[in-house]
Structure prediction request, 147 residues.
Amino acid sequence: MAHRLIYQVVVTGTQVFAKAFTQAYKQAATAQAASKTSKSAASKFGGLQLDEACKILDVDETALDKVVAELNKKHKLEDIAESESVLAQIDKKFTHLYTVNSEHKSGSFYLQSKVYRAMERIRGELELDPLPKPEIEEPKKKEEEKK
Prediction:
């Protein structure tokens, strides 16, 4: 009788351990697959994650997700108008940060590159056209001012 009880305890313990092990393995496999896809997307867009790009351009990530959803639906006109206003705000922030950090205004090329890559990442997420570099007014040279 005692050997039957010990046998049941061992079998039940083995079953519980096996189920826990398989669940942990499945979770680890899905987490690894998800990290590979996010890393490949980040490497495609200059090494930036989407949340990092949103922080650089000071964009609310939930608003960006809403824009992505609306661009995928394209049903209601007011939603499209709202999405376009969010895109216009993002573009305005980009052009401001890009021009402020230009080398002609004693800005940082590194920061300018970060801003450009952040916008490139957001446009890639929204599947928009490639990003053209904004034109920056070059300061007049001293020779031209003397004339």
